[in-house]
Structure formats: C-alpha cells, structure tokens
Automatic annotation (TrEMBL), chain A:
<keyword id="KW-0808">Transferase</keyword>
<dbReference type="InterPro" id="IPR023576">
    <property type="entry name" value="UbiE/COQ5_MeTrFase_CS"/>
</dbReference>
<dbReference type="GO" id="GO:0032259">
    <property type="term" value="P:methylation"/>
</dbReference>
<keyword id="KW-0831">Ubiquinone biosynthesis</keyword>
<protein>
    <submittedName>
        <fullName>Coenzyme Q5, methyltransferase</fullName>
    </submittedName>
</protein>
<dbReference type="InterPro" id="IPR004033">
    <property type="entry name" value="UbiE/COQ5_MeTrFase"/>
</dbReference>
<dbReference type="Pfam" id="PF01209">
    <property type="entry name" value="Ubie_methyltran"/>
</dbReference>
<keyword id="KW-0949">S-adenosyl-L-methionine</keyword>
<dbReference type="GO" id="GO:0008425">
    <property type="term" value="F:2-methoxy-6-polyprenyl-1,4-benzoquinol methyltransferase activity"/>
</dbReference>
TrEMBL record, chain B:
<feature type="compositionally biased region" description="Acidic residues">
    <location>
        <begin position="86"/>
        <end position="97"/>
    </location>
</feature>
<dbReference type="GO" id="GO:0008289">
    <property type="term" value="F:lipid binding"/>
</dbReference>
<dbReference type="GO" id="GO:0005743">
    <property type="term" value="C:mitochondrial inner membrane"/>
</dbReference>
<feature type="domain" description="COQ9 C-terminal">
    <location>
        <begin position="213"/>
        <end position="284"/>
    </location>
</feature>
<comment type="function">
    <text>Membrane-associated protein that warps the membrane surface to access and bind aromatic isoprenes with high specificity, including ubiquinone (CoQ) isoprene intermediates and presents them directly to Coq7, therefore facilitating the Coq7-mediated hydroxylase step. Participates in the biosynthesis of coenzyme Q, also named ubiquinone, an essential lipid-soluble electron transporter for aerobic cellular respiration.</text>
</comment>
<dbReference type="Pfam" id="PF21392">
    <property type="entry name" value="COQ9_N"/>
</dbReference>
<keyword id="KW-0496">Mitochondrion</keyword>
<feature type="domain" description="Ubiquinone biosynthesis protein COQ9 HTH">
    <location>
        <begin position="96"/>
        <end position="126"/>
    </location>
</feature>
<keyword id="KW-0831">Ubiquinone biosynthesis</keyword>
Amino acid sequence: SAKFTPLPKMAASIGAVVCRALHSRRHGKFLSIGRGLFSGARCLVAEGETHFGFQTVSETEKGEKVYHVFESVAKKYDIMNDSMSLGIHRLWKDILLHQMNPYPGTQLLDVAGGTGDIAFRFINYVRSQWEHQIRQKLKSHQNLSWQEISKSYQEEELKLPGGSQVVVCDINKEMLKVGKQKAQHLGYSEGLSWVVGNAEELPFNDSKFDVYTIAFGIRNVTHIDQALQEAYRVLKPGGRFLCLEFSQVNNPLFSRLYDLYSFQVIPVLGEIIAGDWKSYQYLVESIRHFPAQEEFKAMIEDAGFLKVEYRNLTSGIVAIHSGFKL
Amino acid sequence: MAVVAAAAGSLRRAGWGLLRCRPVVRCPLYPAQRAFHASALLRRVSDEQKQEPPPSSSQQRFESHPPGDQPDQEPQRSHHSYTDQGGEESEDYESEEQLQQRILTAALEFVPAHGWTGDAIAEGAKALGLSVAAAGMFHSDGSELILHFVSQCNSELSNLLEEQQKLVQLGQAEKKKTDQFLRDAVEARLRMLIPYIEKWPQAVSILLLPHNIPSSLNLLTSMVDDMWHYAGDQSTDINWYTRRTVLAGIYNTTELVMMQDSSPDFEETWHFLENRIADAMKMGITAKQVQLTGEALVQGLMGAAVTIKNLAGLNQRR
C-alpha cells in the first residue's frame, strides 16, 4: 500500500482541517477526502513525536491525551462497546479465552484490562473447567479426595480452583474503579486483584505470570515495543502472550463498509450515548494507525517470543496474536 | 554336511544383504519423528541428566535408507502456515520442535491420571519447569501427544527388530519363520500399550478424527512396512500391498481385542493373534491352491473340448 508522507506540520494542519470538517456532521464530502488522505496510510513523523489518532503529537502528550480519553469514557465504556460492535465484542473476548484454554492454577496478567471483561471470563472459565474435572472423575468412579468433595459442595468458593489468579493492571484509575464496581456487582471477589500500572513499565517482578493478555489496549500504548518487552519480562518460561486488537480488514469490499461504519456511525454513537464525540473519533483513527497483522507479528517476534501466530476474527476487524516465551 | 551349512549361512547373509535395497519407497515419516531423531544430536550437553527419550539411539535405523533421505532431517518443521521461525534457537540451544517433543515425552507420565488430553500436556510442561500455558502450543484434544507416543513406540519396535536382525546375522540366534516372527513383532508392539491400556480406547477414537487420520494412517503403514521388511519380504508385485494390508488388519483387530481383554497378561489376546496369523498364512496357501485348481480346471475343459471336436470330426481339414 502506498504511503502518503507529507511533512508533519502539514499533516497536523490538514488533519485539523479535516477533523473540523468532520465535526460538521452532515458533510459527507469532507469525510471522503479525509478517508482518502489517511486510510491505511501512516505518516512519517519526526523524532519524539507519535500519532494520536490522525494528529501528530509529542510522545509525552500522547500518554496524557490517551489518559484523558479513557478517563472521560470510563463510565460508559461497556455500553459503548456493546453498541459500537453490536455486541460482537463479547464473542471476540470469549474466543480469546477459548484459545487461551487456561489450566487450573494459571496466573493471568490482564494489562489494560480496565473494566475487567477478560478477568471475569477467565474466572468463569476456570471455575467451569474445575466442575468439568470433578464430573469427569465422578463418571470414571475415581476416588475423590475429601478436599475435592467438600469444594464441590461449597456455594461460595473461597479460592479459585487450583490456585488460579488474575491481576488486572491498567494505567487509568477511573477504568479500574469501574471494573471494581462491576466485580462487586457481579460477585467476583476471590483470585482477583487490581493494580495501577503502565504497560511500558510493569510494577511486577520477572517471570511471574503464566499468561499475559492485552485486549484492545496495545494500540493506545506510546511505545509498543517496550510494552512487548515488558510482557516478555514478566512471563514465566513457557508463558503465553495473547493480544486481542483491531487489525486490518483483508476483504476490500468489506473494508469499505467497515470504514463507512467507523467514520460515520461510531462517533455519532459516541456523541449520543456518551456525550463524547472526540474520544470515539480518536478510537477509530487509532485503529487505522495500528500495524497490520503481519507487521505486528514481526514486532512480537522481535521482542523474543516464539511460535507467534495470529488469527483473524470477523474477516480481519480484530485479530488475536499469540506468542510463547520459550 | 558342514559345507552345506556354511553355504546356507553365506546364502542367508547374502539374502539379508539384498534386503537392504528396498524395492519400493517407504511412506514419508511423521515429520516429528525426524525432528525427534535429530534432537538427540542437538541436545545441549548439560541436558543429559534430564530424561533421555528411549529411541535416541535410533540413528542406525536410517542406515538402510538411501542417503537422499538424510538432508530431509531438518529439526525445524512448522506445522502452522503462519509461523516462519526457521532455525531460531532459544537459550537452551534447542529448537521449538525439540522442546515440544520434550514436553510431550514428559506428559506421557500423566496420561494414566488425566487421559490423553491437554491437561496431561499441561502437567508435563509443569514437570519440566515450564509454565502450564505452554500446553497452548498444542491442540487441546491431545492429538499431538498420542501421535508422539505412537511414533515413539514405532521407533522402539524398529530398534528391537534391528537388534534381532543383527543377532541373527552374527549367528547368535536362529532365524524365525515368518509367522513366528510376525507374531512376536506384533506382540512386542502391543505390549508397549500395556501401561496406558485403560485410556487407550480414548486415544484410538481421537486418532480416528478426520484431522488426525492422515498422520495416524502414516504411522500405521510405516510400522507395518517395518515389520514386513525385517520379516524378509522382498516382493515387488501386488503381494507387497496385500501383505501389508493383511498385517495392518491383524494388528488393528488384535489391538481391539486387547482393549477389552481381562485375562492375566493378556493371554487371550496373544491366542487371538496366533489364530489370525495362522489364518493369514493359510489364506496365502489357499489362494495359491485356488489359482492352481482354477488353471487345472480350465486346462481340463479345454482338453475335453478339443477331444469332442476331434470325435465330431470338426478338426479335420478338408
């Protein structure tokens, strides 16, 4: 794909003009210009600068801007997810868990896990696997230990089966607050902890976790390679890195429909439901800037992971990348 | 008398020598089998205290292969279409494939408790000091574990047969008759299943899943091929196929009998095996007899027809 490489300032000013034009909602013509300039293109930026959506900002600024975006959307985050993806994001996250297939005793680190979607699914999965194991043993008439029998009768399990644990780490306190409230509301208490931390500098020791997941978070990180290196550091040998993220659609016809939907519908929904047009504009723009499947796979391999694979979901709208620390 | 014996001995040795030139190309081995053999070479020295997989001394197995096979022994064989990690070595100086083999070997210990599932693989990874998430490298239904086990058993079997052949060559053992040889070979191979016999039905059903059938069929045919090779089969015609098909049938049915056999030391199974092999031998003889009888009958009829023609005077030329 041809790369459009204007000077950074020009890009910023063009971007600003287009953004302003886009803000006047009925002007479809400006929208198509914007799409033509920026769809699939990644502008060259100077040192110390990076992308914030289609704007060019300094690296320090990006962190702050991302923080503000998520601070303002935190309360409506889940509702917006449902309405934007028409509920399909739940399936995506379920498929991620299914691919993870965690064995009881797994220590999971969910980075940028904010409102806890992945963490709650993990807990459900481990619990149902445990019940499945118990049932299997009963079927094959194996002798259960007294501990296992008593556990199966317990209504409130004090610990997750096998000692599984999940740590939810997020840079944004608001998102974690929403997540904690959700956990209380849904009744998840044990095996769950909430930590504030930066994906580029995780506050954990080396080789602590079995699985590291980052769902829809890595595109917001300023230095993706640093985040990948941190992931490598905190994983145990044999540990697994899983990333669920928006990616490039491979089908050209579907890609046009998707672009149309992203730029026309999503910011409008953002304004109506969350009262925040700009944040959702940032969202769809940041998706366009994120590297494609193969490129991201190469980045993961650079961080030292082996057996890196990816799997497209919904014909490339999202992709699950998986790598092992061997 | 001694001269005759010596002549017979030298002829026998020459006969074994002829066996080394295989008339038909063998089916390609399950790729992991090749990687598995190569792993013995590339293993780091300090890894020797870890569990050494039994067929690591199976290098001599490839002696009888034409040299063209050797370059194919790459330790790196990616099964997935997306990965392109060739030759990438982690700190342990072994490739991903070799590490996978080690995990699977370690996982075999846990099969009696957990069955042939991803759980056993997770326990195996844990036993090696890796995270349980390493089991995510494999299919969750345990197919790779079963295929690994089967190819390991096949290698053990060919080692055994090779050593027996050597003993016969050195004159330290008697050459067995074909039916006895096959019986012993099948029995030896089936005995390797005994530690896992309780969960073996599960394994067989997984091997019959559509995505596993190519690999499992490969392993079965290469095993049967091996047995006939060491039994001294030199056929180059349709017999090559019929013999292998028959032996595969015998092996599969005996395996099924073994799975529900509860007699001490599986006596019923070996009895069944003996009968099936005797049947097969008889079948071979019977087939020949039928053919000869058929030919004789046809000749008889032709003769009768000619006689009648003669009697009727139709054969005379006017």
